[in-house]
Every structure is written in structure tokens, then in C-alpha cells.
Amino acid sequence: MSEPEKHEFGRPNLIGAVDQGTSSTRFLIFNAGTAEVVTYHQIEVKHILPKEGWVEEDPMEILESVKICIDKATENLIGLGFKSSDIKALGITNQRETTIVWDRLTGKPLYNAIVWLDVRTAATVQQLIKKTPGQNKDYLRAICGLPIITYFSAVKLRWLLDNSELVRKATEDGRCMFGTVDTWLLWNLTGGTNGGDHVTDVTNASRTMLMSLSTLDWDDKLC
């Protein structure tokens, strides 16, 4: 292992990365100077398959898997002679289209995470396409760059509003929060119900079918 790059006070510069994927979660710690992996920890995440074509995950299990991986990788790091404070920055990469809704007051999920490859929204997609001029699935490409298909978060959110009384009621009461996996993790890791940040970035927002590629902001027509 090469010697990590050091800042002006003589301590090494390390970067942590949460990699929350469809089948597993990892937390990796990198040498900032060489991009070499210093240590990591990885655990599997279970799929929930309630019906054919439906793929869900437990948002609380996703969150807990991230916390465990961070703790275990940090323990490994300390065992190698480093300090946790040597980690100077943290990034998140994740399964992007997977959709989570939760109660902003309790912090509890309102439904299981609907995974990107879930196809329960097929009927919702057809209904949306029928409302476009010429029944064109590519009608929104000029705005968001995406076709109207089951993949993306917006149609999953529409399905939840149409099919979950809990989600619908929480939305009416102003308690429902929506996000991709990065948003769920960031909200919880920055305080959750005690002022957690409800944020994302363009790489995730661009897969929701709600962001304009020209403004890099939520589009009123799509939202």
C-alpha cells in the first residue's frame, strides 16, 4: 500500500465513498493522492419480491447497511494505524432510479423502496403516454432527456400516489418526502427529523424524469 497524501499538518488525506447498489452496500476509503483503496466493508441487501415483476427493498435496511459498512470500514482503518479524522470528504454513489418515500415527522418509510428494475408501473406508463400528442413515449425527451418508461422515479412516485393510501394521506398532510437513495441517505445522515438536508445532485435528479436538462432544475411542467 502506498503512503497516503498528507495535508499541511502531517496527517494523511483520505476520502470515504458510500456505494449503495441494488444487491449490496459498500463503504470504501481511498488514498486521496493515488485513488488506491485503503480498506472497505461490504454487506448484501435483500430484495423483496411481493409479485411477479415487483422488486422492492427495505429503506431502513438500506440505511442500516450503510451505517454498518461505515462503522466496520472505519474500524479497519483504525486497525491499520489511521484515525477516523483522516477521512476528509465523503461521496455517495447509488442505484439512481430507485424511489423512496418517507414521513418527514417520524422519519419512517411510507412504503418499501421501489427498485429501478421494478415494472409495476407499466399501466401508469401507458396512461401517461396516451396523454401526450401522438401518444409518443419520447415526448418528454426534449425536456428531461428520457423516454416515458417504467425505469424512472417519476412514474414510480405516480404509482405510489395512486395506489398507497398512506402515501396519499401523508402527501395531503404535507408530511411526505420523496427521494432517490442518495437523498434518503443524506437526509438521515445529516440529522433526519432534526433538520436533515433534503438534497440530491444532478446525476440522480436526471434519472427522476422531473429535471430539465437545460436548467438543471426541477421542471414545472414535469413536476
Task: Write the topology of this structure.
Blueprint: E1 14-20, E2 24-31, E3 37-44, E4 56-57, H1 59-79, E5 87-94, E6 99-103, E7 113-114, H2 122-130, H3 141-144, H4 153-163, H5 165-172, E8 176-180, H6 181-189, H7 202-205, E9 211-212, E10 217-218
Parallel strand pairs: 1-5
Antiparallel strand pairs: 1-2, 2-3, 4-7, 6-8, 9-10
Helix pairs in contact: 1-6, 4-5
Keywords: ATP-binding, Glycerol metabolism, Kinase, Nucleotide-binding, Transferase
Pathway: Polyol metabolism; glycerol degradation via glycerol kinase pathway; sn-glycerol 3-phosphate from glycerol: step 1/1
Domain Carbohydrate kinase FGGY N-terminal: 15-223
Your description of this structure?
- The protein is an alpha+beta fold and 223 residues long.
- The chain has two domains: 1-47 and 58-94, Domain of unknown function (DUF4445) (Nucleotidyltransferase, domain 5), CATH 3.30.420.480; 96-223, Nucleotidyltransferase, domain 5, CATH 3.30.420.40.
- Helices cover 30% and strands 22% of the residues.
- The strands form four sheets. A four-stranded mixed sheet has the order 3-2-1-5. Strands 4-7 form a two-stranded antiparallel ribbon. Strands 6-8 form a two-stranded antiparallel ribbon.
- Strand 9 (211-212) and strand 10 (217-218) form a beta hairpin.
- It is elongated.
- The N and C termini lie far apart (49 Å).
